[in-house]
Amino acid sequence: MFIFPILLLITGFTLFGCNRNESPANFSWQEFCCRDQGDPTTRTAMYRGKIPSHWRRKDPLPTESIQDTTKALTEFYIGDLEEEKVYLTLFTFPAGNIEQRVPPVAQLERWKRQFEEFDPTSLVIEPRALGGFTGFSIHVTGLLKGQEKSLLGFSMQLAPIHVQTLQNKENASTNQKQMAADYTIKAVGPPSAISRWESEITLFANSFELIKEIPLR
Amino acid sequence: MMHRLYHFLGSITFALILIATTACCAIAGTFFESATDSHQYAAQLTYGSSFFSLLLWGFFLNILISALRRYPFKKRHLPFLITHLGMLMVLGGVLIKNYFGTQGVMTVLEGSASDQIFLKDKPALLIESKNGQLTQFYTFSPNFSRYSLLTPDNMQVEEPKEPLTITLLDYAPNSYETIETWIKGSYTSIFGIRPVPAHLAISSTEELPLPIQVMLPQSHENPWNLLALISDSPEALAKKIYTASITVTVREISSKEQIYHGPLTTLLKENITTPYGKLKTRLDFTWSLLKGCEQPTLFIELAGQEKEDKVAISLGGDDALLNRNDFPFIGKGRMTIDLSATSTLLLLKDLQNDVHLFVFTKYGQIVSSSYLQGSLDTILAYDDGHLGYSLEIKLPHVEKTLNRQMRELQLMSAMQNDRDNKISPEILLSGYLRNYATDSDVSLASKDKLSEHDLPLILESPLSTKHRAIPPSNKLEQNIPCIVLRFKKGSQEEVISLRYDPTGSSFKWPVLNGEFIVRFQPLLKEIPYRLRLRQARQINYATSNQTFSYESDLIITEIPSNQSVESQISMNNVHETWDGYRFYLSDIYPPDKGALKRIQIVVNRDPAKYLMTYPGACLMVLGILLLFFRKRKT
């Protein structure tokens, strides 16, 4: 008499039990604009990433053009105390065609040269691929402007097959060409701070992607 | 009669016959699969066959009628009826899945998304029009009946004024494909050059045809000698043609007096006696299929009464025409070696249909490149394939070539400007001594030419394919069928052959002057979910290269409602939607960490799973338990 309801209950648990992956509650998705062509009002949201709630974000002024690639798309300040503050910047580098692009490893070399000296045993470079982009991550500790700092950076470039698709598409919009831009994420701070926030910075880097999917030919 | 048939269909006897037949089919299937190593072959003969479906219907009838025979039903029949209802629901679910279920494969590239699956057991013809108005699948009649018309699958466009008809002329269950380029049949095929006959050369000892003089529109070194041969001895033939085309001039370095001027063949055959001594020559023309010409070198030795001079002249690569002498002869040459010829382009096709290109420049440099079946690169597509495809080759150091003197001067300039020059110290020294010690009569005008570097010669050849039927293998998974189709639209007609592309990712071939492009591939079906691949990765065991798991991070969007969910699927972790779509990760390629990945997902949907199959199984279990329970009470 009671067997049927018990069986039904067991069946229900078996059928509807599932493992769901959820982001931690203290992260949220935030969007980032691409570079403009001189007119700051034409900036459109192009990227997104998971940002911890305690990170302080600083965007360029709405009236300021960020066509110049030496200007960051966005800056983040992580940590409150001076000894644990990390400064994180996001840059993109739109290029006219594949041949004009700077290889990701060249960005790493540029970052290394910013150090007066660095500990070679602390240098870790790893290849990575995410969201259609390929490149490297770098982690190094050394003397930066007289102070001991660590750098955790990611230099990524859209895979050639996607660049060709975006640039060959008929009537390709400016936005589609901006999608082909390289990007870098660079976090600099005291070694202890970088170590403390490394998992959050890596989570941001691993979640950073184009809002729109890359079209196929 | 009907009464007897009715009772037989619901009898234990019929049930036992069905069970025994099913068991025999299953056993036979395992033997077939083991013998042929082909699951598809075994499935076609047993579990995938119409006969097996008939057995399932037989079970359905048997269970149904055996239950109905108990009518009028009593309370004691309840466990029996529940069990049989459960079995009928399970069987019904299986039959519904066979006819209405979905099973396909989806391929997604990192960063992009897809809502289409390949139905591997349904080959079809994909056709796209140039104006983009038509993208259509055409299906085949059963068993690929010859001369049958292909029918559009779910055609939604209006009938155009001149309808397109596609007729299947021939079908082969297995085929072999040859990619044709540079030499097609018995003629050359190079853009800008009229077709030149390709001669069959059995051996290198036979007399060879004379080359044909052509003008390459893309070259500054015209005219060219063009020769095309079909032979299985590319190395020997190339060496023979090279030596026959070269004239050698040997001069005494200080007086510029000519020691020898004549064909290289003469110099190689015998030692030449000169007032300065005996000239001995050797040519190293080592060539391999994989590496091409590796450091071809000409060795010349002048043995005088008092001393001996040896010069090794590189004939290829970045240090072509420069002295490659080894110690102790570095920089001590009493002679200069200059080579001259008419620029020659030699195409050699071997019996495996691989094509080897050799270029001999007017100063004797050798450049070679090979095109092996299955390993072509730098393919150009014109108008997205509507105007066809071509193979491009860039042959370095061929255009605006420099003679020996200019090469040596170029080397000296490089030495002065760049301390990290990679040319070996021996060559640097010999060049220094030669130029600054004795050979310094290069004019200012010639020095200006140094600013022009050796440019590559760019050649293109249209790409085409040739198909041949071969006996089918018992391992059905290895068979790649081929079809011959006739396309007809108005007065235009064309016949082409197409080979099956199981991944639907290779070229689409133009037909009817490029108005359409077509590909023979699995039928594509849209599903109500769009999968976007964020990242795919291979996880290895710690401190090992052995694979532990494959994982991929996806965003799965339900298209009707536009609701998205993030999901991570791996080898043992599938994603299932509320309406029964299941996504299994079956492959990731390539496995390298820093490379753009492509994943293969098996998509499966059983529409009756939650309505029939699972509830039916529960009822079966309940009925069996009740049977035991009731039996114990009684």
Q: What is the mean predicted local confidence, pLDDT of chain B?
A: 84
Low-confidence stretches of chain B: 435-449
How many DSSP helices of chain B?
Answer: 11
Overall 3D shape of chain A:
globular
Question: What's the β-strand tally of chain A?
Answer: 11
Intertermini distance of chain B = 37 Å
| Beta strand % of chain B | 35-45%
Assembly state: heterodimer
Report mean pLDDT of chain A, rounded to a whole number: 86
Q: In this structure, how is the largest beta sheet of chain A organized?
A: 8 strands, antiparallel
How much helix is in the residues of chain A? 25-40%
How helix-rich are the residues of chain B, as a percent range?
10-25%
Number of helices of chain A: 5
**Structural class by sheet pairing and helices of chain B:** alpha+beta
Radius of gyration of chain A: 21 Å
Topology order of chain A in helix (H) and strand (E) letters: HEEEEEHEEEEHHEHE
Largest sheet of chain B: 7 strands, antiparallel
End-to-end distance of chain A = 61 Å
Tell me what the structure shows.
The complex is a heterodimer of chains A (217) and B (634). Helices cover 25% and strands 34% of the residues of chain A. In chain A, the strands form 2 sheets. In chain A, strands 3, 4, 5, 6, 7, 8, 9 and 10 form an 8-stranded antiparallel β-sheet that branches. In chain A, strands 1-2-11 form a 3-stranded antiparallel β-sheet. Chain A contains 5 helices and 11 strands, in the order H-E-E-E-E-E-H-E-E-E-E-H-H-E-H-E. With 217 residues, chain A is α+β, with helices and mostly antiparallel strands. Residues 19-24 of chain A have low confidence and may be disordered. Chain B is of the alpha+beta class and 634 residues long. Chain B is 25% helix and 38% strand. In chain B, the strands form 10 sheets. In chain B, strands 2, 3, 4, 30, 31, 32 and 33 form a 7-stranded antiparallel β-sheet that branches. In chain B, strands 9, 10, 11, 21, 22 and 23 form a 6-stranded mixed β-sheet that branches. Chain B has a 4-stranded antiparallel β-sheet with strand order 1-36-35-34, with no helix packed on it. In chain B, helix 2 (12-36) runs antiparallel to helix 3 (39-45), helix 5 (78-100) packs antiparallel against helix 11 and helix 8 (404-417) crosses helix 9. The longest helix of chain B has 25 residues, at 12-36. Chain B is elongated, with a radius of gyration of 37 Å. The A-B interface holds A 3-4, 7-8, 11, 15, 18-19, 21, 23, 126-136, 158-159, 161-162, 206, 209-210, 213-217 and B 109-114, 384, 532, 534-535, 566-568, 573, 576, 592-597, 610, 614, 618, 621-622, 625-626, 629.
